[in-house]
Amino acid sequence: MSKIEQLIQQLCPDGVEWRPVSEIFITKNGYTPSTSNATFWADGTIPWFRMEDIRENGRILGNSLQKITSEAIKGGRLFPANSIVVATSATIGEHALITVPHLSNQRFTSLSLSDDFIAILDMKFVFYYCFVLCEWCKNNTTTSSFASVDMDGFKKFQFPIPPLEIQQEIVAILDKFTALEAELEAELEARKKQYEFYRNALLTFGTGKPHYSTKIEKLIQQLCPDGVELKTLGDVGNFVRGNGLQKKELTDVGIGAIHYGQIYTHYGVIASETKSFVSPEFANRLRKAKNGDLIIATTSENDDDVCKAVAWLGKEDIAISGDAYIYTHSLEPKYVAYFFQSEAFQIQKIRHITGTKVKRVSGNSMAQFLIPEPPLEIQKEIVGILDKFDALVNDISTGLPAEIAARRRQYEYYREKLLTFKRKEV
Q1: How many helices (H) and strands (E) does the chain have?
Q2: Which positions are tagged coiled coil (predicted)?
């Protein structure tokens, strides 16, 4: 029998009391001070929270990305420290515990404990139970110009109030799960930086410094002692633009197809199967990528994503959409795909981006980019090293993302079990 089960039998064998949000909390709506009034924003020191704060810094927050001045506060009152903000419109179902006096924007509803409940509810327990509340929010929305939570139902949503000792024991257990997940995410971030460092180092030649791989250094001395030649992408391949494929033409069966938008959201360095298909009749009208070709998304809303590329290693030819280029070349396919992620490529790319709202890079521009062309044996050795890093940081079945996902499932399972209580009959 667990300690919590023992405490429940000892302290609340007949169940626990439940109370609605409207009784437990003082609820307030956030707001955005006028952006046209500079005195509300200039040199502000008061935390003002938005969804971006949760995305950037997590669910327990003591500082905000943006701040406001005291002139911006309606009625001169802030939301108190140790309040919960819950997203009740737009991006519904997110929440955070705010540890400092603050305000938030209008997408959030603030929950602070009423005086009668301060002594009997641990705010960290409330924070964890808000995962249950947020699931309710996602399933109870009303729609007008945009989705929002049914606030009448929200105020009636009930929280369990187990004895404080039980709340604190639950918090201690869930804190450990949270800390473990944070450690794994920190390790993943460190590994990503290490991966980027080695990718850039392995794809850089002619610096006069020893190569980061002893084996590659020996291969260079053996196969190209006079150095690695730089070629333009146009020297070693050619670019052909895709044509005529829109999302509405994609199907679940047929001839494999890649839409340029999927390169951002679905594909990694390589692909041997497609997410989507087109009919054989429609495929006959489209340009095709063959095994070994690189497929490049050349349109994006930001500089980072434009020219994201995937090496096609499937057996069948596949159809490619417009706003993507097929690069047919004489290099090791994954070597080229890794090069497109490298700092050396990004520096060249930035100089050739056109457009403001929509960013583009043309095939003619990419044909001018320089790429190191070591012997094929060296290209394959570089790919072998980078494949291991890529699997560690990106593989959802074997790498750190898989371990994080497994820990998260375990955490969510125990959180659901720990936050399930028998209702006390009145």
Answers
A1: 15, 25
A2: 174-201
pTM for the whole structure: 0.78
pLDDT digit string, tens, across residues 54-87: 999 999 999 999 999 999 999 889 999 999 999 9
User: What is the Cα–Cα distance from 260 to 294, expressed in whole angstroms?
Assistant: 12
3-state secondary structure of 169: helix
Structural domains of the chain, ranges and CATH numbers in brackets: 1-16+162-228+374-425 (1.10.287), 17-161 (3.90.220.20), 229-371 (3.90.220.20)
Query: Alpha-carbon distance 152 to 295, whole Å?
Result: 50
pLDDT of residue 397: 74
User: What are 302-323's pLDDT values in tens digits?
Assistant: 999 999 999 999 999 999 998 9
**DSSP H/E element including 337:** helix 333-339
Q: Side-chain half-sphere of 225: how many Cα atoms within 13 Å? A: 2
Half-sphere exposure of 400 (CA within 13 A, CB side): 19
How many degrees, rounded to 5, is the angle at CA 256 between CA 253 and CA 262?
Answer: 105
Residue 227: count of CB within 10 angstroms of its CB: 11
Distance, in Å, from the CA atom of 174 to the CA atom of 185, rounded to the nearest integer, reads 17
d(CA 299, CA 307): 7
